[in-house]
Design a protein that fits this description.
The complex is a heterodimer of chains A (575) and B (353). Chain A has 575 residues and is an alpha/beta fold. Chain A has a domain of 234 residues: Rossmann fold (3-Layer(aba) Sandwich). In chain A, the strands form four sheets. A six-stranded mixed β-sheet of chain A has the order 5-6-7-3-8-9, with helices on both faces. Chain A has a six-stranded mixed β-sheet with strand order 15-16-17-12-18-19, with helices on both faces. Chain A has a four-stranded antiparallel β-sheet with strand order 11-10-13-14, covered by helices on one side. In chain A, a hairpin with a 2-residue loop joins strand 18 and strand 19. Chain B has three domains: 218 residues, no CATH class; 71 residues; 53 residues. Chain B is globular, with a radius of gyration of 24 Å. Classes of the chains: A alpha/beta (575), B mainly alpha (353). At the A-B interface, helix 4, helix 6, helix 7, helix 16 and helix 17 of A face helix 6, helix 7 and helix 9 of B.
Chain lengths: 575, 353
């Protein structure tokens, strides 16, 4: 049981509250999802559960926190580690040692578990997670999904009663994410563990959660309750929920099966829309010559063949998305195009010119590249200086007006004098994007640009990329986010084990390759809707005859000004 | 190594003793001949531990790095220390720090200091490669939580720094920066520092969240703090007693009391920390033999202490350049640094690990 009583936190007395008046309970055995925009205080809230905040960060806490009868504010994070297992966002930052066995033993050694028991506990934990074959492996040799499982194993070995995850699927492909989440849910059921997960990707998690903590904004009291009761208050929700909201259906569907049930209840699934196709799809593949071509590119890392004779053309005014499982070679392909990895064979051509031998710093003038972690590109004291630095590097005129125009287009006009690394994830990403777009490159490569972004930031990024496309830029986006792909891409390529296995219209490719389809495609498998708007537009006729469902409304939110816990039965939402 | 036996793994205590005694020797002598002997011995141990790296050409890097410090040290000292009788040339004018005589003596002393620094770098490089992070963590005195965390961060600092350096170089290239000379490399320092500090912070947070030294009770922590302050007070008292001209035995007594207090509380605190060691590494005969080398070095230090008038390790080129003394016995004892290499060779192994 986790209990927050009127808990507020800020990093110093002069700063605004990050968490304010948090007043809720998470019962034992719950699967609790914590959501909210970037910077709304999700990570801080999680760290309050094990005492990392304020013990590690400093800051001011008001109110009381009780975790399985213990007070993390008094005890601090080290003693709390026996009760609360904390899995950080990036598993690599969580690892201290160099192989799986030692990594798991580390926690057990510190907990003074008798040496004879450690072997047993390691084997049992690995078996429980189905990764016993990884026991002797070096951590650097593991895939993203395997690393995440090992990170879970490290905390699970101490048999904590609460597991806390900070964005556990942000770096995983759809299949690995589903696998990890199913595993977490199974553990929770088998061991009566309480699971608390902070995540932006509600589409991946909502159907697992039985409790939702929504942080509307930094310093605003969280809304807490069952998902059906909280979701009406959240603007950015997964397509299936959004459809339910727009159709006025209650209870809101959380999963595809519930979504199908909703359509069945409403009689929408019988509607005859099979002939409706999206004109944009068939018209989007251009007949222009390619702007950039990778021809028969092979890359090898030691014994691993990362790319095998990959050929890919990028066309002007086209957004191409590149998908594939973790370790398929997506990032390597981007790095090969930019010259950051040596080619075993193959060529990179920009229009007809062979640029294979050009160094990266020269290619970057015409090929912009945004790596996974935008922090890697930020060096300067101010946002403005960051863009000027790129111009200086390329010996281009340092036109401040041009930089300010670009920053304004990126929605950064108010932040030009701010220190880039202090900004939110989305803002940092836009600064990094600005620092590469300032040279007006003809090709833009983005590696997992939606990672860590909330829905609003993601939508803004989509708009920006569409604007760049209209200017004739060729855009290549590596992503695991199928919803983003379906809304944005003109074309989708799929890599598998270093080879291109599909290339074409997004919907066709998604159907053929067996990638986890977006929710809207799962709901309407025989149609070609890309988003809720298109689905709603197509089924408008049916909606007009929709029976009244007013008897199945959501319960009202509880806005108790005195900050007392709401009774669980009624009203079900706690603020 | 192809065709050879598997590398020999020594107990971490062997490397700790080896590192400690070698560093102590280096800190006690400025005799360039002995420092050359020490450098050669450490270089042999380094090369023996990295046969694979040698084949790939990466092992010479630390050797070159350690030697690069020598001319830099000579140049810096020659330009800033204007002492000595053998004048190379004179920097005219009144440039602060620089103007004056540039002498052979200052250059030699600077080169010797550079060599000592180079040996220290190389010793740490060898230690870092031969002691794995888990082994190192087990060597740390766990009664001192902060020290243990800082030690762990230090241990992972070099590999992390290499990784960060590569990432930043790439990021600079992505931003159109061509890295040509030292000035461009200097531009990497600040981002490197920022990202390294971020990494250190993350690692410390992770270690805490994963229960590193969770068994140390708050009472033990406050006792340790009190003991430290008490010991520090005794040392301060001893120093003040000398300052005020009190009899020497009072200061000695206070210093010894401080030492005893530190030792006793360290022992008690270590006993209170509860942790286990998974698959502890046994101390074998080969480890015992390998630790014999550092023992030879200890003998040298004892001799140096017992016979200060002999000045076994002492040398200074000032005021006029003289040939450094060279005692065969000292050189022989310094060869103790080779002990891990010699044990590996006699045990039929080609390399260390």
């Amino acid at each position: 049981m986790i209990r927050f009583r009127r808990v507020s936190f800020r990093y110093s007395r002069t700063e605004p509250w990050v968490v304010r008046a948090a007043n809720f309970e998470i019962p034992r055995g719950s699967f609790c999802l914590v959501c909210g925009a970037s910077g709304s205080g999700k990570s801080t809230l999680l760290r309050l559960i094990n005492g990392l905040v304020p013990h590690f960060s400093g800051g001011v806490v008001e109110g009381e926190i009780e975790v399985n009868g213990l007070n993390p504010i008094q005890l601090g994070p080290a003693p709390m580690s026996r009760v609360v297992g904390f899995v950080f966002q990036d598993p690599e930052t969580q690892f201290i040692l160099d192989n799986v066995e030692d990594e798991i033993a580390f926690n057990l050694e510190n907990a003074a578990v008798p040496a004879q028991q450690i072997t047993y506990r390691i084997e049992e934990t690995l078996r429980g997670l189905g990764i016993e074959h990884l026991q002797r492996r070096r951590l650097e040799s593991l895939s993203g999904g395997e690393k995440q499982k090992v990170a879970i194993a490290t905390v699970l070995s101490l048999a904590p009663s609460i597991l806390v995850f900070d964005e556990p699927t942000s770096q995983l492909d759809g299949q690995s994410a589903e696998e990890i989440l199913t595993l977490i849910q199974t553990l929770a059921r088998q061991r009566q563990m309480t699971i608390v997960v902070a995540e932006h990707r509600l589409d991946r998690l909502l159907h697992f959660a039985d409790r939702l903590v929504y942080l509307p904004a930094c310093g605003e009291p969280p809304l807490v309750g069952e998902p059906q009761h909280i979701l009406p208050h959240i603007e950015a929700v997964p397509p299936v929920v959004q459809l339910g909201k727009r159709l006025g259906y209650r209870p809101l569907p959380l999963s595809i099966s519930e979504g199908r049930q909703m359509l069945q209840d409403l009689g929408v699934d019988q509607a005859d829309h099979r002939d409706r196709l999206l004109a944009t799809d068939s018209a989007s593949l251009p007949s222009l010559p390619p702007l950039l071509s990778a021809e028969g590119v092979s890359v090898r890392y030691g014994k691993t063949q990362a790319l095998s004779e990959v050929s890919l053309d990028l066309f002007p005014a086209q957004i191409t998305c590149l998908m594939g499982a973790n370790g398929a070679g997506k990032t390597t392909l981007l790095r090969a195009i930019l010259g950051l990895v040596p080619l075993q064979q193959g060529q990179i051509r920009l229009q007809s010119e062979d640029i294979t031998s050009l160094p990266t710093w020269r290619r970057s003038r015409v090929i912009g590249y945004l790596p996974q972690d935008p922090n890697a590109l930020l060096f300067s004291e101010t946002v403005l200086e960051e863009c000027l630095l790129t111009l200086r590097n390329h010996a281009l005129p340092e036109e401040q007006g041009k930089v300010l125009d670009l920053l304004s287009q990126l929605g950064l006009a108010e932040l030009v004098q701010r220190y880039p690394r202090e900004l939110s994830v989305g803002e940092r990403q836009r600064v990094a994007l600005g620092s590469i777009l300032i040279t007006e490159p003809r090709v833009l490569l983005l590696d997992e640009p939606t990672r860590g972004l909330d829905e609003r930031a993601k939508a803004r990024l989509g708009e920006l990329l569409r604007a760049l496309k209209t200017k004739g830029m060729a855009v290549l986006v590596v992503t695991h986010d199928v919803e983003f792909v379906l809304n944005l891409a003109d074309r989708l390529c799929v890599l598998k084990q270093g080879k291109v296995i599909a290339d074409g219209m997004p919907i066709e490719v998604l159907r053929k390759t067996g990638l986890p389809p977006p929710q809207i495609m799962q709901l309407f498998p025989e149609h070609e809707f890309r988003n809720v708007e298109e689905a709603l537009a197509a089924i408008g006729e049916v909606l007009s005859h929709m029976p009244d469902k007013s008897d199945r409304r959501a319960a009202p939110a509880c806005h108790n000004g005195d900050n007392k816990l709401c009774p669980r039965e009624s009203p079900p939402v706690v603020r | 190594m192809p065709g050879g036996h598997a590398p020999i793994h020594f107990h971490p205590w062997v490397w700790l003793t080896w590192t400690g005694s070698t560093l102590l020797c280096v800190s006690l002598t400025r005799n360039p001949l002995y420092l050359v002997v020490v450098w050669l011995c450490v270089a042999i141990v380094h090369a023996a531990g990295g046969m694979g790296e040698l084949a790939r050409g990466s092992a010479p890097f630390p050797l070159w790095l350690s030697l690069t410090v020598v001319p830099l040290g000579a140049l810096f000292n020659a330009l800033t220390v204007h002492v000595g009788e053998n004048i190379l040339f004179v920097i005219p004018g009144a440039i602060p720090l620089l103007s004056g005589r540039v002498t052979w003596e200052a250059a030699l002393y600077g080169a010797t200091n550079g060599l000592a620094l180079g040996v220290i770098l190389l010793v740490f490089w060898v230690f870092n490669r031969n002691v794995s992070i888990p082994s190192f963590l087990r060597l740390l005195p766990r009664a001192f939580h902060s020290l243990a965390v800082v030690g762990s961060i230090a241990m992972t600092f070099v590999p992390c720094l290499q990784q960060q350096y590569q990432q930043i170089q790439e990021a600079q290239a992505i931003r159109g920066k061509q890295l040509r000379g030292i000035r461009d490399q200097l531009g990497l320092l600040l981002p490197l520092l920022v990202s390294s500090l971020e990494h250190a912070f993350q690692l410390a947070e992770v270690m805490t969240a994963r229960g590193f030294l969770a068994s140390l009770s708050p009472l033990t922590r406050s006792n340790l703090r009190a003991a430290f302050l008490g010991g520090f007070g005794l040392v301060l008292g001893g120093w003040l007693s000398r300052f005020w001209g009190l009899p020497g035995w009072i200061a000695s007594l206070l210093f010894w009391c401080a030492l005893a207090l530190f030792g006793a509380l360290f022992f008690l605190a270590m006993r209170q920390v509860r942790y286990t060691i998974y698959r502890p590494r046994r101390f074998g005969v080969r480890d015992g033999l390998a630790i014999g080398g550092p023992s030879l070095l200890s003998l040298l230090l004892v001799l140096n202490h017992l016979f200060p008038e002999r000045g076994l390790l002492a040398y200074t080129p000032y005021p006029a350049l003289t040939l450094p003394p060279f005692e065969p016995l000292v050189a022989f004892l310094l060869l103790g640094i080779l002990s891990p290499f010699l044990v590996a060779v006699f045990a039929g192994h080609d390399s260390l690990s």
